[in-house]
Design a protein that fits this description.
Layout (H helix, E strand, L loop, with lengths): L10 H15 L1 H24 L2 H15 L2 H16 L3 H31 L1 H16 L6 H8 L3 H12 L1 H12 L3 H9 L4 H30 L1 H4 L7 H11 L2 H26 L7 H10 L9 H12 L1
Helix pairs in contact: 2-5, 2-8, 3-4, 5-6, 5-8, 5-9, 5-11, 5-13, 7-8, 8-11, 9-11, 11-14, 13-14
Length: 314
Amino acid sequence: MNPEDWIEINIGQWVENLVGFILDNFEPVLDAISAAIGFVALGLENTLLAINPLVLSAILILLALWRVGWKFAVFVLLSMVLILGMNLWDPTISTLALVVGASFVALLVGFPVGVAMAKSDTVEALVRPILDFMQTMPPFVYLIPAAMFFGLGKVPGTIATVVFAMPPVVRLTNLGIRQVSVENVEAGRAFGCTDRQLLYKVQLPLALPSIMTGVNQTIMLSLSMVVIASMIGAGGLGNVVLTGIQRLNVGLGFEGGLGVVIVAILLDRLTQSFGRIRTSEGFFTRLMRALKGEQQKPTVTGSEQSETPRRAAS
């Protein structure tokens, strides 16, 4: 006897019934979510597209010079010239707005969840299986409910991206706070910190490298959804790549993919720079010192710092 003849678990039908129930009873909530996401994603895209390409390129170059260094600034300059030369400025800005908007929403929701997980083992036990489910589900599956609940366009693409990209920031926020040493926490309590002060002044600053790694991974996962989200009308560089696939146009697909790579490198380096502790003066600080005729402060190593009290004592 075939077990399939007498065992029937129709999960697909249950899911369809649940989707139908949500559509019938929660339409105002879905409209509110769509309006909020659309305000962020479309507003950001329209704002960036309203800026002159040369002005926006100059802003990105200066940001790269400030946060990373002159070599990366040269790379950004060449990348902007390449994007303009390939006539991909508008799709690139659309993709950038989608990634930044989706990442912003994912961080806005995910960061408090990560903090709650770090503060409560019960919350962690409840949320961890959900995060496992979100990370192991194929990304194409997210397009189905997004399209059914919110139609086609940039809004459902952004929502699918948010769901797909949220888990890293939740996990790494939780991990970073939990890895703060007991000694630091006890020192904060000894100085009279409340729970809120302990979180904001001790745990979060010490967990910042881990949190910024989560932010970086969230942005990278958002970018990886660009091509997939274009299947439900998200547009941007993903639409260029998708058009190249549909037409078997290798050159067009390569140009779109190259634009995605440039955006990925730009966002990756910039977000990493905010998670690192800078051990030397930045370019603008050195420039201001040079204009004022001041000399650069010497870098003091750990051994030199330990020798200073001894010399003072002697």
